[in-house]
Specification:
Blueprint lengths: L4 E5 L3 H12 L3 E5 L32 H4 L16 H14 L6 E2 L3 E7 L3 H4 L2 E7 L2 E7 L1 E4 L40 E5 L3 H10 L5 E5 L6 E3 L8 H5 L2 H10 L1 H15 L19 E3 L6
Helix pairs in contact: 7-8
Length: 292
């Protein structure tokens, strides 16, 4: 019986796992990666590439290696709990090498279009048009797996800042930020208190004259390392925490966690206490312990 062919679009972390899963299920995967290498978001480049997510040089992942590793391929024991982006990429390379995934990837190949075949109702097949080095190719697949990520396009709502056209300083999205060198001696405002905003405010403060971190609604700040030095995501993802949440209810679970966070520093005193409860929205993970 002929193997079903599956098109995997993107050679990042999701693309690699999809290739491996297809092979294990007896399918024939063909992965299309528009760049010359694997890694997606985690492959740092000095200059942002069009159509690909971009990170800054100092990025440390905010998920511990214990929680992010592939179940069938543990991260080396000597790697830190929270890895630098270069180590995340190296781990993906080891994973791809261990399971022989590179042979299924067509590099420098862009997917131009994906559409159902005219007889899709009976065949269930898709027509995929790709381009490599100026040459287009049409192929047919039995299934499509889209692994392109969701951090590709920058959201820069300039309409929210009346008078921005008269601003004589420099402004840009964190996607275009690479290092703090260009901010030496300057006054800087970082808008947004998500993980990137917190990272950049801390890093730029080492070289800038003054840094302001602007937040619209505040945030609950969670440090990466918890009690006794354990990664915080390992602690809060335990069966005990899950059991207590079910028994006590969401409100009590929120109260308990908010009290713990306020023991570290008083969110209200620093003007950071948000209106939402701690488990109602994503937390911002602080980077004071980024090297642990």
């Amino acid at each position: 019986m002929t193997k079903k062919r599956i098109a995997v679009i993107g050679g990042g972390s999701s693309g690699l796992t999809c290739i491996k899963s297809c092979v294990e299920e007896g399918l024939e995967p063909v992965c299309f990666e528009r760049t010359e290498d694997i890694g997606g978001l985690w492959r740092f480049q000095d200059n942002p590439e069009q159509g690909r997510a971009s990170i800054y040089k100092s990025v440390v992942i905010n998920t511990s290696k214990e929680m992010m590793c592939f179940s069938d391929f543990p991260i080396p024991a000597h790697y830190p709990n929270f890895m630098h982006n270069s180590q995340v990429l190296e781990y993906f390379r080891m994973y791809a090498g261990e399971f022989g995934l590179l042979k299924y990837i067509r590099f420098k190949t862009t997917v131009c279009s994906v559409k159902k075949k005219p007889d899709f109702s009976t065949s269930g097949q898709w027509e995929v048009v790709t381009e490599c080095e100026g040459k287009k190719e049409v192929d047919v697949f039995d299934g499509i797996m889209v692994c392109t990520g969701h951090h590709t396009d920058a959201h820069l709502p300039l309409e929210s800042f009346p008078g921005i056209e008269k601003f004589k300083g420099q402004y840009f999205h964190s996607r275009d930020y690479k290092n703090p060198v260009g901010f030496t001696g300057k006054r800087v405002i970082v808008i947004g208190i998500g993980n990137s905003g917190g990272d950049l405010a801390v890093e730029i403060s080492h070289t800038a004259k003054q840094v302001f971190l602007s937040t619209r609604r505040g945030a609950w700040i969670l440090n990466r390392v918890g009690n006794r030095g354990y990664p915080i995501d390992v602690l809060v993802s335990s069966r005990l925490y899950y059991f207590l949440s079910k028994i006590c209810g969401q409100s009590l679970a929120n109260t308990f966690m908010e009290r713990r966070l306020n023991q570290r520093f008083d969110h209200e005193m620093f003007g950071l206490k948000p209106k939402h409860r701690v488990k109602e929205i994503a937390l911002t993970k602080g980077n004071d312990d980024r090297n642990n």
